[in-house]
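Late entry, evening session. Most of the bench is empty. Finally got around to the prediction I had been postponing all week. Sequence below, unchanged from the version circulated by S.P.
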Amino acid sequence: MSLSKTDFIHYLNCPKALWLMHNKPDVYPLGKFSEYAKKLAKEGYVVEDYVRQLVETWDNAIEFSFQRIFKTDDGLYAKADMIRTRSDGLIDLYEVKSSTSVKESNPHNQLKDAAFQAIVAKRAGEQVGNVFIVHLNKDYVRTGDINPSELSIFSDETVRVNALLSETEAEIEAALILLKQNEIDETYCTCLTLGRARHCDSFDYFNPTVTKPSIYSLPRMGGVKLGKFVSENRFGLDEIGLNEVTRLQQPVLKSYKDGQPYVDIADIESFFNVLHYPLYFLDYETYASAVPIVDGLGPQEQLPFQYSLHVLDQDGGLSHHEYIADQAEQPVGLIEELQRSIGATGSIVVWNKTFENTQNKKMGTRFPDKSDFMSDVVDRTVDLMDVFKTGYVDIAFDGSTSIKKVLPVVVPDLTYEGMEIADGTAAMDGWAKMLAEPDAEKRNALRKSLLAYCELDTLAMVRLLDFARKLIVSS
């Protein structure tokens, strides 16, 4: 039985999930953990190309090699991103990452990752000297061609990695023993003590008695409170008292216990009281990459490339405006088109105000001549998501305020199902493919799919606001 670096990180997140993937691959469900790992690996290779370019300019470039494989007789496998073979016979290990800092916690603990590499290299007969984690410089801003020496930071983590070797050795041995077992207790996994965002792909497989909804459906459920519920074997919402949860969690729990949506008309009315017509329903799509694709951006920084805008007049008239960049560029064209579509008065309605206004503020900073307009947009922005966080909450949302969870419950006739592009990640990928597509017909098809998805986002907000308005009228 083999154990790779990826396997080991998987083991740290959930040992039983790793066992299932190796021993029962036909029932292992690929999910967010697996997809995120693929994304990190893909971006890591992009960063490694620039690191390679940098190393090739060094006087001692001949000492470095890439993608060196280490194997041991007991099944350990590691592929080092880069090594340096020193004149004293030792090798230095370099782990190349697409993050902007050294991550130290699961599920992607880079120090443990490096410790695993060092242990495998040593067991394969090498003498390891220093261990480095190469990550992106968070302060780097692209100006012209990518400058590899400014893009990357070589962080010497030898001391911290060495401090983890003994612990990591024990975890490796435990992982190998686990993988050799033909059978394990498949009635639970350690993810029970983690919040839903950190559940392994196989959580439902190992924990079939945790029905939905459950304590994991309560927003921001984790820490000591989650540990208490788990230790007392209380997973069902019928076993949880309203006095045991936070103010934000109470509407979800009340909806479950009452068997109907939780409605706070006063809360909804307070939202409508701040609205001024015309209403501008705005949604951005953004692109982010480890290595910035345009000047003025840093690593992993969001680049708005598209928007949809529905405009609702006081008399009920509805119009639609849209924009998409046909090349990778700073969003000055997007801002100017937005200026032509948004009037001097009226509320700007978004879903997740924090994200949208972060983009607005950054665009205002990048373009000083547009700062007054962008500041005005920020000041006029209201968050429709708040209504469905505390004003109208249905247990069918499963504790989420994602528009993808709310819309099917509240406005079931409006759906993302069947769309070529149906979420933000797919939109990011679709735009990148559109820019690279040489065939005009295929490029236009991608463009239409992107526009259709973003338009649905803002139309969904129009319909959701109308639903909330009718609640007030009928109360």
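Two things to note before I forget:
The first helix runs from residue 5 to 13.
The chain is about 45% helix and 15% strand.
Will write this up properly tomorrow.
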